[in-house]
Amino acid sequence: MSQNGISNYTLSLSEAVVRYIEDKILSGNMVAGDKINEYAISSELNISRAPIREAMSELQAAGIIEHKPRKSGLVSMFTKEDVDEIFDIRISLEKDIIRLAIVNNYINEEHIENMKQLADNMLKNAEKTDHSSDVFTLNKLDLEFHTYLWDIAKSPRRSRMLHNIFMQLIIALNQNTSTLGKLEDKAKEHIEYIFALENKDIAKAQDILEKHLTVYKKELYTKIYNEDYTL
Question: What angle is formed at CA 173 by the lines to CA 14 and CA 95, rounded to 5 degrees?
């Protein structure tokens, strides 16, 4: 998105605002508890407040922001119990995606090559930047990879729910960006994931996914909630 407007968007105004706010969250420029200034967004994007209110309603329904009458919207804040539930839902839904994509033979050679290219982009970006100085690149590439897989499974409702759950996890993880991991490590994890998908090994792919996400859950417990993670 352009920093001074929405001319490069082919989205509706409210969709552009949703993307704008989500990009701010992915970059760490909006974190849990931050107020969302509708006046500032209106001025920066040069739009009226009507599509901003529409976007706020959508983001509230997605669990990404909290909004109360006559008060500014806030980026959602999550308790440890919330995070437990969010991780459980993410793992369950993405395991379903893996099963659907493989059982229905939706994954073809082109998909595998495209996913390998996305993982390669992670490696190339890892060589150019320290993840702690470019949270946006880390989160955006991770979201791009997983969104690609979710869409392959031809389950738009699961895909939409997973997008919202992904954003909720980013809000939780961005409280301490060291919990996000390193871009190089993410790339290697994704390559392993791709090989399991390429081999149509449902159990292996699901296991890699669960282990991958459990690592981040442990990091959240120790670095944000100051607790040891136990199953």
Answer: 80
* pLDDT above 70: residue 5: no
> pTM of the full predicted structure?
0.89
Q: Does residue 1 carry a pLDDT above 60?
A: no
Beta pairing, strands 35-36 & 65-66 = unpaired
Assess if residue 1 is contained within a domain. Answer: no
- Please tell me the least confidently modeled range out of 96-105, 111-120, 216-225: 216-225
Sort residue 218 into left (φ over 0), alpha (ψ -120 to 50) or beta: alpha
**Residue 229 domain flag:** no
Spatial strand order in the sheet of 73-75: 35-36, 73-75, 65-66
Nearest Cα neighbor of 186 from 123, 97, 94 is 123
What are the residues whose beta carbons fall under 8 Å from the beta carbon of 221, sequence distance 6 or more? Answer: 80, 227, 228, 229
Burial of 103 by CB count in 10 Å (0-12 exposed, 13-18 middle, 19+ buried)? exposed
What's the CATH code of the domain at 44? Answer: 1.10.10.10
Range of the domain at 30: 13-75
- pLDDT tens across 56-100, in order? 999 999 999 998 777 779 999 999 899 999 999 999 999 999 999
Rounded Cα distance between 131 and 148, Å, is 22
State both tokens at 105: 């033979």
